[in-house]
Amino acid sequence: MRGSPLVRALLAFLIIASLGWPLWQLTRPEEAAATAPAPAAAPEKKAIELHLTFTTVPKSFVVRHLENDVWKETAPQADMDKSVTLEYPPEGVDLQFHIEWPADVPVSAMRAQLTDPVGDTHDKSLWGKGTTDDVLTFP
Question: pTM for this one?
Fold first, then answer.
């Protein structure tokens, strides 16, 4: 055998220890907290036009955005318009529709047309029977 096992162990320890300093520099918590992204600014509220058309007039409906009622009707008509002001980020908006259809009617449909702040019109449809509760995403 050549060399001392104690010298080899000491050499291996020094190599491992020399790798510890760069690893500690990369993983220490102070730098990780300093590079955290800043929170995004809240999107500003903008006016949008919402047009709803129903195949069968529902008993009532509610349109919600971020769990806030933006449009509520207890005696709706087959064709309705409303201008609403809400937060409209560049990614688009999610609107939740809760519709109570008459009990004796087969499957009915609702068409939602949203005109965004830029002026583009987006169409989505929703089908249901009885109580319909669904989310539509408008880009």
Answer: 0.67
